[in-house]
Amino acid sequence: MNRKWLAICMTGSLLTGSGITYLGMNFLDKKEESNSIELDTATGSLYKLNKAYQLILNNYVEKVDQQQLEDGAIKGMLATLEDPYSVYMDQDAAKQFEQALDSSFEGIGAEISIDQEKIIIVSPIKGSPAEKAGIKPLDEIISVNGESVSGKDLNDVINEIRGEKGTKVELEIIRSTVNKPIEVSLVRDEVPQITVYSDMKKEGGENIGYIQITSFSQDTANEFDKALSELEDKNISGLILDVRGNPGGFLTSVNAILENFVTKGKPYVQVENRNGDTQQFYSDLKEKKDYPVAVLIDSGSASASEIMAGALKEAADYTLIGEKTFGKGTVQQPISMDDGSEIKLTISKWLTPEGNWIHKTGIEPNLEVKQSDLYHNHPLQIKETLKLEENNEQIQYAQEILTSLGFTTDRKDGYFSSQTEVAVKAFQTQNSLEATGTIDQKTAAKMQEVVREEMKKEENDLQLQTALRYLVN
After folding, report:
1. Where is pLDDT greater, at 382 or 430?
2. Which of 181, 291, 303, 398 lies 20 to 30 Å from 378 when distance is taken between CA atoms?
3. Could you report the per-residue pLDDT of 31-47, keeping only the tens digit for each?
4. Is 116 annotated in the active site?
5. In the chain, what are the domains?
6. Burial class of residue 54 (count of CB atoms within 10 Å of its CB; 0-12, 13-18, 19+)
């Protein structure tokens, strides 16, 4: 099995941190050097490009920075591909890319990408400032600190978002379920890269193992093997693998994990090059586990997570539960240039065991289960206290939160009715706040805190509950 070659499949997204720009998290164990690519200039194919370069460099009305001109030319060529996953990284960005193996970083903790010139969220990281602020997969960022991102390079947007722990950044986002843009204020923090969480669940008198994988880092496979071994030692009757909100990672890690579940009869992934030639990759496993397995997925499951989901669905015949995945089915390779910069270029497609290309379409679950309204609330940004008979979108968001928490409101259209006031007072009383019936910043913060706590409760996780019942029936 060629593990090194498989490790080039990347999410193609950028993870924003302080001083760290993650260009996905799946790259070659050893990157190709620039001299591995040979350009035949003898044919004169670069004559026009070189002539334009010299003309601008030597004759433009103002002095031109040579490095900027070269960088711009490379970005321009990549832009003509109309591929959001083929990008150029200058020396600083490439150096930050090399730091992607750190156990933690500082930032907002959200992986972003660009699609049809739109800057979109792939997934917030578990426990990150982005997740706590209510950022969701497929949110579109339209401004950073009040400045529009329209027409900007993805790397430039990343530079504006990242920053040191304790500093603030203001994002304006568009969400498909909301009519107006949402303003989100985030305080950057340290985001640990803990990737595997395990637990033992009880359902119908049975022991059900649970393993959540938040990303596929360098150590994820080892962490997973340890967690799985500990669960199996307790005689589990079934296993839940949770890759919801997992934006991807090292293919070497996902490959190693799949070898625990996919037998050698079918490939767990296929890779197709530009000529249509396909290479299949197999494990050496002879027999499947003697217990059933269910896999939890959602719209934040991308790239390597989708390889895992596709393999377990089509090659291992396990059940996927949740919502359709993100849809990232291409393979990139990072290539170092002589000056320390890098180009990440799409070189292949990856296909599921049955030969399906899920790019931009995602993987459908066997059992579609949507989460309750509790998981679909929008962040509150209260600048002035919300009061009786006022009408705005923030009141609408507050009404939606109150309803999802079980408080009765007579409307959810943004009009602060008397019944809304009663619901606010009930919430404030229940949470040891002064029962004013108005929504100030303190009340709004408490509302969002309670929502986060309720989302952590297993009984409110409809997808997890479905998986538990499925495995014992």
Report:
1. 430
2. 303
3. 333 333 444 444 557 88
4. no
5. 196-340+349-372 (3.90.226.10), 376-458 (1.10.101.10)
6. exposed
